[in-house]
Amino acid sequence: MPRLLSALPFWISLVLLPLAAIGAVHGGWTVVLLPLYGWIGITLLDAFVGHNTANPDTQTPDRDLFWYRLITLMWFPMEAAAIYGCIWWVTHHDTLAIWERIVLFFGLGVISGSIGITYAHELLHQKNRLERWLGDLLLALVLYSHFRTEHLLVHHRYVGTPRDAVTARYNEGFHRFFPRVLREGPASAWRAERQMLARANRATWHRSNPFWRYGLLQAVALLAAWLVGGWAGLGLFLWQAFVAIWQLELVNYVEHYGLTREHLGEGRYEPVGPHHSWNADHAASNWMLINLQRHSDHHCRPDRRFPLLQTYGAEKAPQLPLGFPAMTALAMIPPLWRRRMNPRVRAWRRAFYPGINDWSDYNRGRLPMPRGAS
């Protein structure tokens, strides 16, 4: 019982599911409940609950984390039911206007992006085959399956270097960052898998290439949307998937904005440390995002389960002024974002890299590719 009670705050994402049902059935102002809860509600709860700087025992065995892990294990069928259930309802009941459908499925994209992909991210980092499959299924629901390869083989290895597309450059606004990542990400993931296959003396189109699985799962997800709701249902599914991808990349933008690893010469970069990711210890948004905001520790210990992630003080990792929901909203307005974050990046540079005087190549991504990167 104590373990269940301590895990329950991480289940606040469940509130989103009845909000989706209310919006689908009643329409009107209720279709905005999902984004209101996800951004404004959680941000206000952050202000009320405050910060959590406690660090759990990292040696806690998996058997003691069951109630924490359960929410990630059960999320795929619930998210799939929410998406396809709403598609069926709105295409078989002529109760929602076009604008209500657009707003409702925008909210569903917030669910599948901020919660679904966050849970997929947790699952894909585990060694358990079931968890990895559930992660793949969640990514298929938003047509972003290559994220598995890009995140595990590229982002964690090359974060803070020119090889990592999702390390946002200093002064790069989100509206420039987003199309760049959409353009570079799939190709980057493909190169990484091709390189892995070549090292194993396998052809690019070998059956072990996960892009076969990615394509099949995404095709099934699209077919299911068409079967449930026809062409209108397929369009709504594509819309929620796009919103989910936009939501994910907003988070990626926030997590590493302006933070680069020092180039040591000849394509060599310093090891990844806690100071290469923005940290946030706001309690409520960490409940919603299963400690994703303890991102500094995640990059140091990628296989550490979310209940055991550590938080750091300002002397070890740069700190965000607000939780991810508020920061992603701010990122949509580049002048306000730069006003709030650029001074923090400059302070980070003075604190951790006082010996670097010229940051122009870092700012423009003109440094050499890391050794071994393709």
Automatic annotation (TrEMBL):
Coiled coil: none annotated. It is a multi-pass membrane protein. PANTHER family: ALKANE 1-MONOOXYGENASE 1 (PTHR38674). Keywords: Cell inner membrane, Cell membrane, Iron, Membrane, Metal-binding, Monooxygenase, Oxidoreductase, Transmembrane, Transmembrane helix. Belongs to the fatty acid desaturase type 1 family. AlkB subfamily. Residues 102-326 form the Fatty acid desaturase domain. It holds the Pfam family FA_desaturase. The lineage of its organism: Bacteria, Pseudomonadati, Pseudomonadota, Alphaproteobacteria, Rhodobacterales. This is Alkane 1-monooxygenase. The chain crosses the membrane at residues 37-54, 66-90, 102-120, 216-242.
